Amino acid sequence: MSTREVATLFKEYFGHTPPHVVQAPGRLELIGNHTDYNQGLVLALAVDRYIFMAASPRPDGRIELVSSAFRNREGFATSTIEKNPAAPWANYVKGVLLQLQRRGVPLRGFNAAIHGTIPLGAGMSSSAALEVATALAVRRLTPYTLTPTSIATPPQADADGALPPLTARERLDIARLCQAAENEYVGVNCGLLDQISSLFGRALHAMEIDFQTLAVEPVPMLGDLAVVVCQTGVKHELVAGEYNALRRHCEAAARKLGAPALRALDMAALQAGRAKLTEREYACARHVVGEIQRVVSGARALREGDFEQFGQYMLQSHESSRDHFNNSCRELDILVDLARHHPACLGARLTGGGFGGATINLVRTPRAADFMEAMDDGYRKATGRSAHPLLCQVVDGAH
Predict the structure, then answer these.
(1) Measuring CA to CA, how many Å separate 90 from each of 13, 55, 244, 362, 364?
(2) pLDDT tens digits, one per residue of 317-360
(3) Reduced to 3 states, what is the DSSP secondary structure of residue 292?
(4) Quick check: is 194 catalytic?
(5) Contact 21, 52 (CB under 8 A)
(6) CATH 3.30.230.10 residue window(s) in the chain
(7) How many CB atoms are located within 10 Å of the residue 89 CB?
(8) With CB atoms 3.0 to 4.6 Å apart as the test, which of 34, 115, 240, 355 could cross-link to 6 if both were Cys?
(9) How far apart, in Å, are the Cα atoms of 383 and each of 173, 322, 380?
(10) Architecture per CATH, 2-210
(11) Domain 219-252+292-392 = CATH 3.30.70.260
């Protein structure tokens, strides 16, 4: 168990057993590529790959961080939280700490060890999981209750020292705080998908997330289904600008068509206003408007148990990402093409920001092992690299 591994890492560096351990799952976007910041809909999953954080208070107002993935230790005072070019991984933690301070949470010193089982750069959002884990670890150390802009009366621990579970409202406020950390401190103008998915996950269910109302509706995924992730080995660096550029194109298209967001448009309205847009703006908008409709149709198919139809929506989603949004790449296309020709595969598409990362595949459970072997073999022949297939369980959210 990785809870044991993070506790061992903590003890190795800090000399005692940590009193607090939290875990935040990674997420997979089932359908709904880049629809979140367009006030659209997404079907997402929380999966059994985690960021674990073990923490203990310290009395001197300093914060010391260690990570199993990045062995350079990072330390700073709560009064001087600044970026360190030698430890960029710590920016996700620091951004959350600054947001908590701004809302009035009295930040005290602590030691923390971080261990992850989310593959880095695979589009499963290790960054959001680290942000969520940080927020929950601080809540254990200094109990707080967030409001949208500040804090309220802190929660009271029970006789065993356990805090009450987060309400849906509190989970949403923590998600927003973590999003602000990534937008303002890390520099990725992301939507709320990753943070909401990590906090609201539910075992054996997809989450249908409405980013206009921020309602989260569980959708059963009960059937002979396996979720397999295949990795391109191409690491995407969203901070480099591709993500922010795509968002600008989408927002420009909505603005030129007089809509608050692309969610407000259907395909007919988009076609009618096409002359007002650049070719790139139109292509991005076409993907997003079509993708929102695929989420609606896909959620209906899941509720009806029509997994073959759902798989077709996944394949259509990938084709739209490839042909219109242009956030696929050769390696992602190879993986989807290999998957669609395997008899066990119901559907496949890129997941996450794109430009690399991974594909998500919906597979018939009895043939999952054969599918994974075939994918790895086929990808090696095409690229010389392993696809490192991962069989994922759909799990509950962070705690």
Answers:
(1) 17, 15, 21, 34, 39
(2) 999 999 999 999 999 999 999 999 999 999 999 998 888 889 99
(3) helix
(4) yes
(5) yes
(6) 2-210
(7) 19
(8) 115
(9) 43, 19, 5
(10) 2-Layer Sandwich (3.30)
(11) no
